[in-house]
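During the second half of the funding period, the structural biology subgroup turned its attention to how the target accommodates small molecules. The most pressing case was pyridoxal-5'-phosphate, which had performed well in the primary screen but for which no bound structure existed. We therefore specified the complex as follows and requested a full 3D prediction, including the ligand pose.
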Amino acid sequence: MTTGQHQLIEKLVPDSIKKLIPYQSARRIARGMKNTENHVWLNANELEVCCQYGDEKEGGNSHYNRYPDYLPTDLAFAYWDYCKQAQPVMADSAEIMAVRGADEAIDLLVRTFCKPGNDQILVCPPTYGMYEFCADSMGVKTAVVPLTAEFQLNLIDIKKQLAETSIVFLCSPNNPTGNVLAQQDLVDLLECTKDEALVVVDEAYIEFAPQSTVLHLMSQYPHLVVIRTLSKAFGLAAIRIGFLIGDQSVMSYVSRLVAPYPIADPSAEIALKALSPTGRQQMAQQTSELIEIRDWFMGEVSQLPMVEKVFPSSTNFVLIRFKGSENFYQYLLNHGVVARSPAQEATVKGCVRISIGSAESMTKTLDVLKQY
Ligand SMILES: Cc1ncc(COP(=O)(O)O)c(C=O)c1O
């Protein structure tokens, strides 16, 4: 860790977090202990002898009687390996933590690095709403510097806010605009935040634009933190697995606040299958199929008379601006298509965000729009 990074982290972490002694969960105690094969584990009020619920043919549940690992290392290793495949230059001091979805990663970062009633985060809307929501829920202020008309960073106005800011939350590819933030802007921002703030890049949609990742910048900028998830391209939203990737200096504080057993065993088992070589191949295949459907849908929609603009997408959704005053979100809903009306920032007024589903669902959506 550089002296500068050390000073930044010490400046950002509230005293209450510095004093915090992590909860000694059943599995955290076992870390570092050797020759434990013959130990009798009676430290966590678990049921050692447990019945099989339901039909035994369905698989039973006997191996779920013990609390899971407090931070499943096999999952972190598997994700590290997955990252390295796409991005061989990973910072030596980077650590990966599996959490309950990217949303938990956002929540943990605000709780670890912002003092309620005192600190502020910075967001660049239109963007994912959970950054501001988490800050609001903890009494942390949010500075708002909207993206430019091209949905890029307004670096001049961001820089004006940095002295007061603890975390800059960015999203690339961005939700709901669907575009990637310019890498040079991210580098410029990382340069001028070195002594000021953490820069968090939420890469929830990275598999749809893998070349845009900022992971390789972490060795040069240890105040960069990356958030990932299995909810999008991997198609595993229900198992609630996300990842936090950051310098050891960042992660050592975050791990003090993480829940005692964040990842349920069945979720970890499914995630490990998805991150295996076969799982990764399946994900890559379904991603390219989805991109094909997306590009076909975008082409068709852009020809409809009531469509003003279909914004380019590096994600599994598309943002569409409609002409006139008709509420097309409501129109679609009335006809059985549930889309999303993004928060009404000026740049996305009159827009509807539509996730890319199966070819069948997109054909139905197109038909509904054609009937208008
Ligand atoms: C940009 C972004 N980050 C995070 C999330 C939440 O991801 P998870 O399901 O891993 O909590 C979403 C979900 O829509 C998202 O769009």
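Two results from this model are relevant to the next phase. The pocket of pyridoxal-5'-phosphate is lined by residues 101-103, 128, 171, 175, 202, 204, 229, 231, 237, 242 (CB under 6 Å). The chain has two domains: 3-31+67-275, 279-370.
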